Amino acid sequence: MQEINASIDVDRRLASQDIAGSKAHCRMLVATGILSAADGKAIETGLDAIVAEIAAGTFEFSRELEDIHMNIESRLAERIGEPAKRLHTARSRNDQVATDFRLWVRDALDTLDGQAKALQAAMIEQADRHAGTVMPGFTHLQTAQPVTLGHHLLAYVEMLGRDRGRIADCRARLNECPLGAAALAGTSFPIDREMTATALGFDRPCANSMDAVSDRDFALEYLATAAILAVHLSRLAEEIVIWCSEPFAFARLSDAFSTGSSIMPQKRNPDAAELVRAKVGRVIGQLNTLLIVLKGLPLTYAKDMQEDKEAVFDAADTLTLSLAAMTGMIEGARFNAERMHEAAGRGFATATDLADWLVRVLGLPFREAHHVTGRLVKRAETRGCGIEDLSLDDMRAEAPGITADVFAVLGVENSVKSRTSLGGTAPDAVRRAATEARRRFLATAEATGGIKP
Ligand code: ARG
Known about the structure:
This protein has helices spanning 2-5, 8-11, 15-31, 37-56, 68-80, 93-129, 149-174, 193-199, 209-214, 217-244, 271-294, 308-332, 337-345, 351-362, 366-383, 392-398, 412-418, 427-442; strands spanning 134-139, 142-148, 176-177, 204-205, 251-252, 334-335. The protein is mostly helical.
């Protein structure tokens, strides 16, 4: 029974939240006259001593005492005796654990936000540096149109910005206090739920005591937010793997983030990127785990819900590590501009620019310009050259009105320079976008930290 029932190995991570919750509860009990001031003082002093024991590593966590709540309460009784037994008045482990866990997830959201912001900062930095660095833009991983590396990196800055928006949304919805819901029905003691909610940094108490002890949708939202963020990281990781591969050779990771092979001395493997790509599996898996745990539970509390914490802790640890590694990789990555430029010109990447020129200058309908360009691409293919290398005669054979001016739009530089539409890849636009991104994402006030006991 102890093996399956005890959760202390996992929920000991809630210790500081549990103590903060107990202190807030204790002060409220004193303020409402439910507990004497002397008992309240003894309890607070005892809890402070336990904080110190835990910090010093001398606190003995015991499986026989099942979970963090019982471990701390029992140690408190050892230290201060009788008053400790009054602390659990007007509360239950059900509202206690729901409160602790919300506090923990709130801190985790703040950590996640800070890390996502740090990664955005690293990416904006590189994007600014490479606002004019041309690279191939892909669809289907086939060369499509030239873009700038800065533009490509800023795409991820936007994704991370939405991730941070989800973090903020989740935090706002989470921030209601379950404490005082007691086991499920509320309590007959004259408690002050506003007081405990405020003390713990919550916006308000949960409105319904049954909801307060039985839902874990805040944890689901955390995991869903985490899973989407992890998917973004995984896509970026995959791009890093591709860019660092020998046939591409667009990028090189710093020595700190490259590993060697035990047999092939020339290898520089992007292990960290591969691991970030793989670890998303755990995060998605934990979201699934908790969805499945909760899906059939009748109201209110059931012990099934004890499984919520391991899922969230694992996802949080995984993401913290992944974000740190990704930020390190991005900060130290070096890009091979020459190589990317050369690749950008391959595969008739400026065919669309030719078609656009035919529309703009000769007034051809786009569909026809598309056909003409297609025939010119064929010609270039047979000649074994790029479209910009075709002679004017070759050009005129397909579209008699073409003049030498056309060559001005065909190089990759010209191509990206011309993409000045809002949100487009022109170097000047990318420089402006990087400045805007700094203002939108980096200048905002830090998210508020969680409460400390
Ligand atoms: N360790 C438990 C959990 O994490 C605490 C709540 C126990 N409540 C109960 N009614 N047995 O869910």
